[in-house]
Amino acid sequence: AIVMASHPEHLRHGRYVVQLSRASLAQLFCLEFFAAQTRDEQLAGIFASHDLPFLGMSRWDRLLSVNGYELRSSQECCNMMKELLSVVLVLQSKNRPSTEPVPQPKMESLPPLDMMLLTITKEILENDTEFMLTIRRRSPKLKLDLPFNKSLSKSKDHGALLAACDMPQLEILAGDKLLSVNGVRSPSEKTLQQFVDTAIVMDLTLRRSPGMGRPPPSKQLGTYLQPYEAQAAAHAGVEEVCAPHVVCCTPVPGLGY
């Protein structure tokens, strides 16, 4: 599993707490929030963008704190989520508003991380250069980031979709060629985006060109942590309240974490 979550624990005054953990800093927490502002451009609140009943979350539920820290700006929210592998979120139900002080969750008594939000399995195909990734998520409303761009080169890959960057959490390297998605061969950017927006299960077939020090797919199986992430993980306990990012919020568009 790449992203895990706890079941929600309900507190007093319409508050509830959810814990999330990810295997890599390169992977979003899959949640999406938006920020609302007052007329004088002060932060009115940070709110959930979607109904996610398995997390007890409804659109317009307000995010009150991250790892016990009360948020004062959307940028602060983004910065908090960027370098943490595990977060504890306290939210306020939209149906039970309250002005009571934000509670400090008891970290030692939180429900276990036993809910898989995002998982990946991998199968090596032909000649040790093609491989299939099966990505499963609990809901299509969980944000999934798959940056692929159309190749502009004059080679045989002209027009094909190539990975725009390394995605270590998915074991994809920049330049890996997308051959098919859910059986659709040579998909367009629009087709890929439709699956990203709606599919719970995605089967991606990719090809990796050997050379230039690029390991074949079979050698990529194993760890998701990069060296700098291993160091961050050592300091990213749930009690930590410093550290600058999961995508947080902008005034109107939603931001994904």
Structure description:
The strands form 2 sheets. Strands 1, 2, 3, 6, 7, 8, 9, 10, 11, 12, 13, 14 and 15 form a 13-stranded antiparallel beta sheet that branches. A 3-stranded antiparallel beta sheet has the order 5-4-16, with no helix packed on it. It is elongated and about 60 Å long. It starts with a strand and ends with a strand. It has 257 residues and is mainly beta. The chain is built from 3 helices and 16 strands.
Task: Count every helix, treating DSSP H or I runs of 4 or more residues as helices.
Answer: 3
What global shape is seen? elongated
Assess the beta-strand content as a share of residues. Answer: 25-35%
Separation of the first and last Cα atoms: 17 Å
How many β-strands, per DSSP? 16
Question: Structural class from helices and strands?
Answer: mainly beta
Largest sheet: 13 strands, antiparallel
Q: Considering DSSP H and I runs of 4 or more, what fraction of the residues is helical?
A: 10-25%
Rg estimate, integer Å? 20 Å
Topology as a string of helices (H) and strands (E): EEEEEEEHEEEEEEEHEHE
Average the pLDDT over all residues and give the rounded result: 81
Given as residue ranges, the uncertain stretches (5+ residues, pLDDT < 50) are 221-254
Note the main attributes of this structure.
257 residues; mainly beta; elongated; 13-stranded antiparallel sheet; three-stranded antiparallel sheet; 11% helix
